[in-house]
Amino acid sequence: MGKTFAKKKQHPPSSSKDLLSGIKAIQKSLGDLLQSIPGCPDEVQRDLFVLSENLQTQGTFLSEKFAKCQELEKQAQEALQESEQRYRTIFETAGIAMAVIEEDGILSQVNNKFAKMAGYGKNELEGKKTWRDFIVKEDLKRLQEYHRLRTIDPKAAPRSYEAGGLDKSGNRKNLLITIERFSGTQQRIASFMDLTELKKTQDSIKKMADGYRTLFNLANDAIFVLHPDTMVILDVNQKTCELYGFTLEEARFLKMEDVSDNSPPYTPTSALTWFKKALTGIPGVVEWRAKDKSGRLFWVEVSMKRITILGDERILVTVRDITKRKQLEEQFRQAQKMEAIGRLTAGVAHDFNNLLTVIAGYSGVMLSNLKKNDPLFQPLMEIKKAGEKASLLTRQLLAFGRKQVLAPRIIDLNRIVENIGKMIGRIIGEAVELEVLLDPNPLPVYIDIGQMEQVIMNLAINARDAMPRGGKLLMRTAAKEISSNTFCKTCGNFFHPGTHVTMSIKDTGIGIEPHIQPLVFEPFFTTKQEGKGSGLGLSMIQGIIHQSGGHIDFFSQPNQGTIFIIYLPKRDRKRAVLSNDPEKR
Question: What are phi and psi of 129, to 5 degrees?
Answer without folding.
Answer: -110, 155
